Amino acid sequence: MHEEKSRQVFRKIWDKVAKPGLDGRKLIVIRNRADLEYHWWSGLVDEDKYSMQDWVAAFQDSLLPNGGYFVTEEQWMAKAEYHYAGPIDSPFDPMTIREGEWSEEALDDLVWNKLKPCVYFSKDDWGKIIAEVKKTLPKKNDRYVISHPLKQEWTTFVNTYSSPRRVLQLGVYQLRAQQKGQTGPLGPSPTSPAATGYAQGPASSRTIADRLSQLIGKRNT
Prior knowledge:
Layout lengths: L1 H16 L1 E2 L5 E5 L2 H9 L10 H6 L11 E3 L1 H6 L21 E3 L1 H12 L7 H14 L2 E2 L2 E4 L1 H13 L3 H16 L13 H4 L5 H18 L2
Antiparallel strand pairs: 1-2, 2-3, 4-6, 5-6
């Protein structure tokens, strides 16, 4: 069922995007690797199964000497297996987190099961980040205290370092809100730089995240 859904999605993309080349044969023209990376960051690809490197490598047969890509219909449709066709849940809103005291066990459950899926950090880097965060959190009766300003900080953080799945969730959420004539509480569309921190595209945001991870790593050495 998912396979057929994915083929339908890729067929629709082909029908909308493909244009005739110089020889009259239709092609999808991808300007460079950055555009391929954007496909991955947008949630088009199943990130749990395929890394961004896997997705880019799949287009090796379409690569041109100038770094662009000419993708034929057969080549494009072959990529349907990479598509994420699973459920798209509503994006988690950190502002809904309960304010007040939290045990360490409850806090760990929150940051790993609710916040971690929102961001694209590796398990190791996320563990380092949380270890640093815990050092700064206020405590009361040996329990961590979550405040309203902290929830605002976390909301900014997850929107800045959104995982591809969250970008997809936000996109669907915003589309539904627009169709209903509503402005969602999670902010602007994920395609807006203000929503995700992708001021110069996902690659730029990923570089910032890498630097943050390196900084945290140095602190822990």
